[in-house]
Every structure is written in structure tokens, then in C-alpha cells.
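Quick one: structure for this chain?
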Amino acid sequence: MKILSKNFIRQYKGKILNIHPSLLPKFKGLDTFRRVLKSKEKFTGCTVHFVDEKLDNGKIVLKKRISIEKNFNEKRLKHNVQMEEYKAYSEAIRKIYRFN
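Got it. Here's what it folds into:
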């Protein structure tokens, strides 16, 4: 989890993917799971997007959504979102490059 320099991003424009643990544009930045639970969201998930010069802002490739159960704590929410992230990243690559 690093913020890349603008020069680096410009050099690789359209070639860097990020996966963020929320349904962007909601909950950009850090402490995502804590903020999601505090906001009493019913759903969250993950977003695969291209990196641009703004934080968690680039063109969205895809999103995966999960339901938030009443008994979820940060650890459980993180685990469930990460399970979707594992699927989402490879699905996003297939979508970008049209692999089947």
C-alpha cells in the first residue's frame, strides 16, 4: 500500500491496476473496514481499477459485492472482502485482455 509518484504513474499510464477493499467511490483511502462498519453499510466489496494521479480514482474495471452481516467485526469483514479480491483481480485481467 504505497502512493506512487506522479512521474511513475504517468510513465505507466493505463498499465497499473489496483484493488481497493470497498465499492469505490465509497471509502477511498485507509481504514476501510472500520469506516464501512461505522457507517452501518449493508453491502461492501472490492473494486479493481486503473491507477491514476488521484487516490483510488482511476477507471473502474469491475466490482465485487458482499453482504455485511450484523455480527461482522473488522477481521471477519476483511476476510470476506479478501475472498472476493482473489477472484476479482484475475477476473479483471481476463476482462482487460479478453481471456476466456
